[in-house]
Predict the structure.
Amino acid sequence: MPGGLHPPQSVIDTWPTPNYINPVTRGYGLLALTVILFIVTPSIVGARLWARIIILRKPGLDDVLICFALIPTIGLGVCFILAAQKFGFDRHIWDVPPTLWLPAAIVGWTIELLYHISTSFIKISILLFYKRMTNATHTIKFMREGYLLWIVSAVEVNGAIICASAPALKPLFDKFFADIPTSIYVRSVKELSWRAGKNRNGSNGRDTPGLSNPNRDSKTMHARANPRISKAESTHELLNVASGQGPPHWPLK
């Protein structure tokens, strides 16, 4: 972002009024997930070490690297909790006090560093584990019994490529698909609000309170007598709203 750690004043001027007292946040989902993973991940690693050291008595370098990976992973979880609970990562930037911008940037940089260190150890450990498996035996029996392993490996490799490519697809979705659900939802809500206003003020906005509108009453009676026609008309009008054919005073954004 231009301006270094602090956004330029031209960007700050476009922000709404900050709410430092009671801002809108994303809740405690990240905190709950991190605490659960704090329990699950070390337990799985401990079970792995028990199986490799105590039961098989064949520890390897891949086990050592997975232990190294666990250390920055725990640090990563601590940074997640601090970032969300103390440095405003769970709210809009304009609701974060400027005094927290620099500490928040440092926490963000620390998260990136720990993430790369942890994933590097994990990837190397996985490669060494595969090497251990392929060096164990090359018999026909292993080839047949390893059939499921090849299926899992194929899914893993292709899934990794898809996951690595997914973030780069954001501009494509923003260009072709981003406005479709939003525009339909917004226009539908405005259609309901417009109809509520018509029901209060009359079908054309000129009905006198206390007097009935013959055209509206006849349409209502016709709709009640023919529910299928009423449903079809409502569907047709909703499609018109979604295509932008609503009342001219709507700000269709």
